[in-house]
Amino acid sequence: MRGWWQELAGLVTPVDCAGCGLPRSVLCGECGAELWGRPARRVRPDPVPAGLPPVYAAARYEGGVRSALIAHKERGGLALADPLGAALAGAVGAAGRSGAGWDVRGRRGPILLVPVPSARSAVAGRGQDAGRRLALAAARALRGSGTSARVAAVLRLRRPVLDQSGVDARRRVANVAGAMEAVRGAERLWRSGGPVVLVDDLMTTGASLAEAARAVTAGDGRVVAAAVIAAAPRTFGNHRN
Questions:
Q1: CA 125 to chain CA mean position, Å
Q2: Quick one: which of 59, 35, 50 has its CA closest to 203?
Q3: DSSP string, the chain
Q4: What is the pLDDT along the chain (241 residues), one digit of tens a residue?
Q5: Residue 56 CA, distance from chain mean position
Q6: From CA 93, how far away is CA 106, in angstroms rounded?
Q7: 110 vs 70, 142, 193, CA distance in Å?
Q8: CA pair distance 2, 24, nearest whole angstrom
Q9: What angle do helix axes 63-74 and 81-97 make, rounded to 10 degrees?
Q10: Half-sphere exposure (CA, 13 Å, Cβ side) for 52?
């Protein structure tokens, strides 16, 4: 119910820019430029957790981008799903163009966007599954640009995990280690031949993405890349690919 009321309110009530507060603008041009103004690029945490696939991010997690992600995830800014999803689609496209293990022109089946799962308690508390909503928006954006894509929300948490915020890299890895699994029947999707790209809103240490990759691989899937809307500034480094 909470999510339904939030979506209705977003349709009938003027809103301010989620990034900077500019009146009557869901996301102003300046904050939008922080998301789309530069090509998505490869990011790497330090240290790199074992099993982390190549990760591509649309933007740095700072300024208006940070504010917009928090507004969508924690404050029910549902109108932000499409612009954020478009940024996520850009990161997916960058992964494909990089030669990360798949080729849009020669693949079999659609790209499978697999969102990193959130805890049930978090989804219930927010009234929405923010990660799945962003994955769906990204898939729409990819299809709109001529790239076949679908969302495969096939990962789930098999045990409770702690909130990752405020936890150092080593403890984050331990917190999520072995916590995810693919649901029964996921192997049918892997057999369709489409490349599996993990998607999430944010990467800091890469622990959750590495665990998601492990879970897909354990279920006989093959992850070729991961894409996020934003990553911690320190993960950008000086590398180009």
A1: 19
A2: 59
A3: -HHHHHHHHHHHS----TTT--TT-SS-HHHHHHHHSS--EEE--SSPPTTPPPEEEEEESSHHHHHHHHHHHHS--GGGHHHHHHHHHHHHHHHHHTTSS--TTT-SS-EEEEEPPPPHHHHHHHTS-HHHHHHHHHHHHHHHTT--EEE---EEESS-----TT--HHHHHHHHTT-EEEPTTHHHHHTT-PPEEEEEEEESSSHHHHHHHHHHHHTT--EEEEEEEEE-GGGT-S---
A4: 334 334 433 443 446 777 777 776 677 877 778 888 889 999 999 999 999 999 999 999 999 899 889 888 877 677 888 999 999 999 999 998 876 555 544 455 789 999 999 877 666 556 667 889 999 999 999 999 999 999 999 999 887 776 555 555 666 677 777 788 999 888 888 877 678 999 999 999 999 999 999 999 998 888 999 999 999 999 997 554 4
A5: 10
A6: 15
A7: 30, 10, 8
A8: 23
A9: 120
A10: 21
Nearest to residue 157, comparing CAs of 119, 201, 208?
119
- The Cβ of residue 13 has, within 10 Å, a number of other Cβ atoms equal to 7
pTM over 0.90: no
- Half-sphere exposure of residue 76, counting CA atoms within 13 Å on the CB side? 17
Domain ranges in the chain?
Answer: 2-235
Name the residue among 157, 123, 138, 176 with its Cα closest to residue 58: 138
Q: Is the separation of the CB atoms in 190 and 221 below 8 Å?
A: yes
